[in-house]
Structure formats: C-alpha cells, structure tokens
Amino acid sequence: MSPPPNRLSNDLDALSGCAAGLARAFVSLSSDIALVIDEHGIVTDVVQNEQAPMDASAQAWIGRPWSQTVTGDTRGKIESLLADACTAGLGRRREVNHQGAQGHELPVAYTALRLGEKGPVLAVGRDLRSLAAIQQRFLDTQQALERSYWRARHGEMRCRLLYQVATDAVASVDVRRESLVAVNAAAARLLQVEGASAQGRLLAAHFDARSRPAVVALLARACASPEAVATQVRLAGTHLSISLTATRLPEARQPTVLLRLRQADPVLDDPLALGSALARHVDGTPEGIVVVDRLALVREANLAFVQLVQAPDLEAVIGQPLERWLPGTAMANLRSLHSHGLAPTQRVVLVRGDEQDLAVDLAGALLDDVAGGDAGFTLRPSGPHVLTADARAAELLRAIHALAAELGGSPLPDLLREAQALAQQHFVHTALDRHPGDAPAAARLLGITIDELAQLRRQPGFTAPPPTR
C-alpha cells in the first residue's frame, strides 16, 4: 500500500534522483552520517565525513534493513521514523544506538526526509558520543559529589558518636529512691562528687531548688515512656544550665534510668569548626574509644584504639568482636551495661596483635539509643610506660621553655633547629613507648622505615627509653 500523497513529498520529487549527492552535501555541511533508504527500508548508501568517519563498519549496513543495524531497544524508533517520513514527508528527530564493529554502541540522532512521493528516504544523523561522554562525565561527577557528601556525613557522624563516648556525663539513677547508682568520671566532675561515694545520693540535691521538681518529674516520665525524655535544669550553687536526657533501662531488675547531663559545648555549637574540632578531639586523644553493637561487634573506633590493638588500619577493626582484644571482659561488661547503663572503670588486660598484653583502664556506657543496645567504651593505657610518656612530655615542655629564654641571645634559625631536634626525639620516644620492644611497629607509627628509625636512635643526644616490665 503506497503512502498517502503530501505536498512536501510532491515538492521534493525532483530531488529523488539526487539522494546520494544530497547525503554527501548534508554530511559535509553539518552532519556526521547520512543514509539513503529505499521504499523497503533497505540501506542503499552510507555517507560519512571523510576527515573523521563516525565508524568504519557503517559501510557494511548497505543492503541491510535499516532497523536491523540498531540495537533491539531502539529498533522501534527506526520504524516510527520511517513511518513518519512516508506519511508526512519528514520524520522528527529520534535517538538510536547502532551496534559497532567491536561490540560498542554508537548513539546517533537521526532526522528523516522523504525525497518525493515515490523517492527514497534521506536520513541525516549526528554522532552523540561526545554528548554522551559529557553526560557520563556529569553523572560521574554527580555520583562522586554524592559519595564525597556521604563520606563527609559518615565522618561527622562517626566523630559525633565517638565524641559522645569520650565526653558525655552519664549517671544511672534508682527511680524509686530517686538516688544515684553510679556515675562516670565526666558526671562526677559535673556533679562535684567522688565517683565511689556517689551511690545513694539524692539526685535532686545536685540541682537548684527551682529545678528539683523538674528533675523528679523527668524520672517519672522516663520510667513510664519507652522513649528518651529531656528537660533543662540548673546545677546547685551555679548559674550553669544543663540538658538532662533520661532513658529507662528495660533490662534492669529495678526501675532504673540512664541520665545524660550535657552543658553547652562550643565544639558542637560552632557549625563552621565542628568537623575539624571533633576530628582533632576524637583522633587526637591518646584514649582508645570504641563503639560496639549488642553483639559486641565494633561499629566505630578512633585511631588511638587502632594503635592500641596494633591493627593495620581502621577497616581492620570494624565488624570485629571486641572479645578478640578483651577476651572474657567485653561481653561481661556489655551485659552489665544493659542492666546498669554504666560500667565503672576497671583495670583489664588488652591482648594486642604482637601478643604483648597491655594493662588498660576500661570504662563504658550505653549510648543514647538504649533500646538499640549500642555501647561505648574508653580504654586508657596504664602502667610504667604511661608515666614515662607523661615525664617525656614534661621534659619537652621544659626544654622548649629553656629555648624561649634564649630569645634575643641566639638567632631564630638556630633556636628552630634545636626545637626541631627536640620534637623529633620526643616523637621517636613516644612511638617506642607505645610499642615497647617492637621497633617495626614504632617505625610504622612514625611513617618511616626501620632503617631510618635505627639511624635516628644512633644520633648524638638520643637517650634510650627505660626498659618496660
């Protein structure tokens, strides 16, 4: 059945015999490829830019149905393009994908024009690979930005979580007696009590008279609610306003509430400096900080914890059981936390990668989401090497003060060289103190080779660290 006549086709009848020449003209002027298609949809001629042909394999399309030269998902577009050209004389632009010789796809945008009522169809195409490459680069950039954003968000959430473990003041409270059961070190400082003597003290007595009814009401609300409840109060004898957040401990034998006491923190209140400040505090402290889930699997940890357990990097500890380094201790403390909310500081043994045990002071508390069962622990190294590290820090400070006293008597470059030598010696000693008897581990901590470390230790003025027991 022949297509219905249309004015555009009739006007172009005279050009039907010039299809090949028109194809070359279009390609030379503004297109990348032009095809001549007969009335049966067969490609009879292919013209490409001689200077930069789109694809050498395109010449093999001659004699084949045009719809068979494209991928299956765009074949319908070719059929629609031919139908439009036959009925209206002009087929609107459609984007298709040709199958290239080496298996890659060639995206092309075609517009089709029928040369007369019975003439061939001239299909003029633009190579979309450059546009597709730009679009792909845009998508890649967008995905990279999204990945960077989520990495930054995860980094901030990690720092917030570890910062909470390191700094939060936490107390467990007997609801019936409205008295303290236990407090961690931060809460003891805030409430001005000795940790050991806090048990049995009335909680409300630590707040001013106007705040006491709110404290008592908070305990009652927390005991009756599965969710955390909060209020603002003032400490007794001060104008210090703090936020109290109370959460019921569902696994406690007696009605017990876990209380978090938070005062305004400049680190958290400055959004511009938040990320760097949290990172400096979390990864700059010598205390190991670790967050575990209900099964005591490590969720997050700071760099000090990674160094304490002598793991190669943070990824090596994430998902690992805390029992690996605190055998017989981690699960017992976690069970205690679920019942009491707090684990008092105790001396435990940390089993490290080099099998040299290390004594640490372990303390822990449940996190905000009590129902989730996540807990945070801090590990502070204890023993002779800690005293050595403190003594070395004091010695470095005295030496810097002595250098400062020479200002005006010695040139600044000389003083800077001496300060650099002192700092270098201090860093080497610190690495050796953290890894006693393990020079390779100390070298890794310093970011130098074992030979470079040995050379530094042979320098004049370097004193060997005292032997550890």
Q: Helix fraction?
A: 25-40%
Distance between the termini: 101 Å
Categorize the overall geometry. elongated
Rg (CA only)? 38 Å
Total E-strand runs: 15
The biggest sheet, with number of strands, parallel, antiparallel or mixed sense and barrel status, is: 5 strands, antiparallel
What strand order characterises the main sheet? 2-1-5-4-3
| Oligomeric status | single chain
Order of helical and strand elements:
HHEEHEEEHEEHHEEEHHEEHHEEEHHHH
Secondary structure class reads alpha+beta
What CATH first level of the largest domain would be assigned? Answer: Alpha Beta
CATH homologous superfamily of the largest domain - what is it? PAS domain
| CATH-scheme architecture of the largest domain | 2-Layer Sandwich
Q: Classify the fold: give the CATH topology of the largest domain.
A: Beta-Lactamase
InterPro entries: PAS (IPR000014), PAS-like_dom_sf (IPR035965)
Protein name: PAS domain-containing protein
Domain PAS: 21-87, 157-224, 276-343
Structure description:
It is a single chain. With about 475 residues, this protein is α+β, with helices and mostly antiparallel strands. It has 4 domains: about 5-125, PAS domain (Beta-Lactamase), CATH 3.30.450; about 170-265, PAS domain (Beta-Lactamase); about 280-380, PAS domain (Beta-Lactamase), CATH 3.30.450.20; about 385-455, no CATH class. About 40% of the residues lie in helices and about 20% in strands. The protein is built from 14 helices and 15 strands. It has helices spanning about 5-10, 20-30, 75-90, 130-165, 185-190, 210-225, 265-270, 275-285, 305-310, 330-340, 385-405, 410-435, 440-445, 450-455; strands spanning about 35, 45-50, 90-100, 105-115, 120-125, 170-175, 180-185, 230-235, 240-250, 255-265, 290, 300, 340-350, 360-365, 375-380. The strands form 3 sheets. The protein has a 5-stranded antiparallel β-sheet with strand order 2-1-5-4-3. A 5-stranded antiparallel β-sheet has the order 7-6-10-9-8. The radius of gyration is 38 Å and the shape is elongated. The chain starts with 6 loop residues before the first helix and ends in a 12-residue tail after the last helix.
